[in-house]
Every structure is written in structure tokens, then in C-alpha cells.
């Protein structure tokens, strides 16, 4: 069984964060999202992993993965983002006729993906598709299921046939390549994996729909990143490897090596990453402060503060914030009493 992680997307809904880096390398609960994908594949016994990257995402994804242990990683270049089925076609040579897990690199699964691999290995289906019940299925692929078998799949339907969304993990046998070969692009101009799976079904092949266990998150929007951060932090093992002075650590708090916390309160679940500084501050529940970041004279709650970002003397508590790599939120003295903003394209600021 091989694994194919897709990490070539543009992540348009996460702009401005994705102007400068691909979504799978954004940190959630201290780790790039793609690390969780790799761990889940390894835990499911998958040792040969291909990662589909684009010319834009390649360098960042490779840097974020560094020296991966416990798996052999191959990078596969998708020159143009033309859809999930197109990514599989691009990887055809590397995949050969082996069965494989297709794993969308921005998806998170609380309990991993082993059940899907096992269901496939038990024999029979041409594909296994992970399904999750969601409130608004219109933004996903949606399945119509009978007795564990998928009858119909529709991509982002106006009128969903059920509340069962296609979660970002699929297991395929080699038959999928044949249907992808003569697939037509969809109305949005992409080669859809949902269309390819529908063709398998139409050809009389069994496609199994298996509900996920635990939570599942597609980290498409900033709100999803924050929610994923909350869910992952809730399970961290508390530890203190940094320097903590005149401070209170409450609940599940991780202080990584080289972090400094002074005259502050850190209320868990929270993570203060390596080399960061928290001084005269409150870092509240469900907050991850990234490597080398600084929080001084400020309060931050339910937020992600990325690598080397700086938050200094902000008079109002920051909440539900995603502060990008190296971004600065500070206050200044004197007149005029005005907000001074330098924001990248598609940035969002809500002033309370
Ligand atoms: C893709 C798939 C969709 C699936 C979703 C899960 O959509 O096309 O069927 O439900 O991933 O994350 P995307 O998020 O790429 O628009």
C-alpha cells in the first residue's frame, strides 16, 4: 500500500496566509498540518509516500518535512493545479499498479486513517471513501449510501442528497487509473476525483463508504484552522522544558525547550513553542504560540500565533486570531490616536 498526499493546492480561501506558504505547512497546535498526514499514514502501515507538489509549493513542503523518518518520501510535481484526479494521473508512474491511499494534505483526522486501509485490505471494493456527517454538505463531495455501499457521489451540490461529506481520504486499487484516463473536466474546469469514483460505481464496481471515527477537519478557512488547533491542543501532554519565571501554568500547557515565560499566565490547553517569549502576558486556552514568536504585555486567547510573529502591548485581548509568520501587532504611544495598518492582499482585521 502506497500513500499519495496532495500538497499542490493554492489554498485561496486561506489568503493572505497562503499568499506566501502552502496550507499544508501552516502550523496547527505547533506542527505543520502535513506532519499529521504523514503520521497517520505511517500509523496505518504505509511506508512509501508520494507527495504531490506544485512549482509554488514544492520548496516549502520539502522544507517543512525535512528528514522524514519511518517512511520513504518521493516528491511528484504537478505543474498545473487541475484537480484531484489530475494529481493522481500525474503520479501514475510512481504509483504503478499498487493500491494506494489518496490523502488530501490539508485534512486532519483525530483517530487516523487505519480503518480505511483495513477495510480495503479485507478485500472486495474497488475503492473505500471516508465519509463524515456535516451540517452544511454543500461545500464538499456528498455521498448517497445504501448498506455501506456508495450509490452516487456529487461534488459540491446545491441540493445535497445526504449529510455525508466525502472526507479527504480515499483508498484505491489500480482500476481508478483507467477511469481517470478518459475523464472530462468538470464545470469548474477540474478533473474531479468524485467524477472518477462515480465512473467506478457506474461500471458496476463496489465503492465502500466508511464513516470516520472521531473528528475530521478540512482546514479550508481560518475558522477551521482555529478549530483544528483547539481540537489538537485538547489532547497535548503537558510538559515544561523551557524557562518559566514568576508565572502560572494552568491545565494542559506545553512549554518547549528554549521558550521563556515571565510574569505571565498561560491557561491550557496551550502550546508555547521553542525559542518563543511570553512576558507580562496572558496566553489563554486553545492558543499556540509558534517558534521564535513574542507575546509581550498582551492577552491572547483561542489563537494561532505563527513563527516569529510579535504581539506587543496590545490594549485589548486578542481572540480568534491567526497571526502569520513574522507578522507584528503592536501599539504605539502619542498622537494621533489612530490605527496604523500595513496589510497584505486579502487580509482581515476586525477592530473591537
Ligand atoms: C475536496 C473534494 C471534496 C471533499 C473535500 C474534503 O474539495 O473535491 O469532494 O469533500 O476535498 O476536504 P476541496 O476542499 O479541494 O474543494
Please describe the topology of this protein.
Elements: E1 2-7, H1 17-20, E2 27-28, E3 31-32, H2 33-43, E4 48-53, H3 58-65, E5 72-77, H4 84-90, H5 92-95, E6 100-104, E7 107-109, H6 114-121, E8 127-133, E9 141-146, E10 149-155, E11 164-172, H7 175-181, H8 193-202, E12 207-211, E13 216-218, H9 222-233, E14 239-240, E15 243-245, E16 248-250, E17 253-255, E18 260-262, E19 265-267, E20 270-272, E21 277-279, E22 282-283, E23 287-289, E24 294-296, E25 299-301, E26 304-305, E27 310-312, E28 318-319, E29 322-323, E30 328-330
Parallel strand pairs: 1-4, 1-6, 4-5, 8-12, 14-17, 15-18, 16-19, 17-20, 18-21, 19-22, 20-23, 21-24, 22-25, 23-26, 24-27, 25-28, 26-29, 27-30
Antiparallel strand pairs: 2-3, 6-11, 7-13, 8-11, 9-10
Amino acid at each position: 500500500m502506497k500513500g499519495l498526499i496532495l500538497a499542490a493546492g493554492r489554498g485561496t480561501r486561506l489568503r493572505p496566509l497562503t499568499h506566501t506558504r502552502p496550507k499544508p505547512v501552516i502550523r496547527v497546535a505547533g506542527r505543520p498540518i502535513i506532519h499529521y498526514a504523514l503520521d497517520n499514514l505511517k500509523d496505518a502501515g504505509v511506508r512509501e509516500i508520494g507527495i504531490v507538489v506544485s512549482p509554488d509549493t514544492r520548496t516549502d513542503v520539502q522544507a517543512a518535512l525535512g528528514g522524514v523518518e519511518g517512511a520513504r518520501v518521493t516528491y511528484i510535481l504537478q505543474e498545473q493545479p487541475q484537480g484531484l484526479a489530475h494529481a493522481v494521473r500525474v503520479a501514475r508512474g510512481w504509483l504503478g499498479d499498487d493500491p494506494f491511499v489518496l490523502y488530501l494534505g490539508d485534512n486532519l483526522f483525530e483517530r487516523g486513517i487505519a480503518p480505511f486501509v483495513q477495510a480495503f485490505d479485507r478485500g472486495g471494493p474497488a475503492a473505500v471513501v471516508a465519509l463524515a456527517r456535516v451540517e452544511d454538505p454543500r461545500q464538499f463531495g456528498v455521498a448517497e449510501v445504501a448498506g455501506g455501499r456508495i450509490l452516487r457521489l456529487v461534488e459540491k451540490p446545491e441540493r445535497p442528497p445526504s449529510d455525508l461529506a466525502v472526507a479527504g481520504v480515499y483508498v484505491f486499487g489500480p482500476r481508478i487509473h483507467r477511469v481517470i484516463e478518459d475523464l472530462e473536466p468538470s464545470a469548474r474546469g477540474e478533473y474531479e476525483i468524485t467524477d472518477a469514483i462515480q465512473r467506478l460505481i457506474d461500471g458496476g464496481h463496489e465503492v465502500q463508504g466508511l464513516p470516520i471515527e472521531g473528528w475530521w477537519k478540512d482546514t479550508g478557512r481560518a475558522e477551521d484552522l482555529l478549530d483544528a488547533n483547539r481540537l489538537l491542543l485538547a489532547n497535548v501532554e503537558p510538559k515544561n522544558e523551557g524557562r518559566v519565571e514568576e508565572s502560572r501554568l494552568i491545565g494542559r500547557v506545553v512549554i518547549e525547550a528554549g521558550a521563556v515565560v515571565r510574569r505571565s499566565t498561560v491557561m491550557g490547553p496551550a502550546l508555547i513553542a521553542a525559542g518563543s517569549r511570553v512576558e507580562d502576558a496572558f496566553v489563554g486556552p486553545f492558543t499556540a504560540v509558534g517558534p521564535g514568536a513574542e507575546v509581550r504585555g498582551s492577552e491572547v486567547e483561542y489563537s494561532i500565533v505563527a513563527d516569529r510573529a510579535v504581539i506587543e502591548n496590545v490594549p485589548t485581548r486578542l481572540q480568534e486570531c491567526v497571526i502569520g509568520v513574522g507578522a507584528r501587532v503592536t501599539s504605539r504611544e502619542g498622537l494621533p490616536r489612530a490605527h496604523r495598518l500595513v496589510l497584505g492582499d486579502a487580509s482581515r482585521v476586525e477592530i473591537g
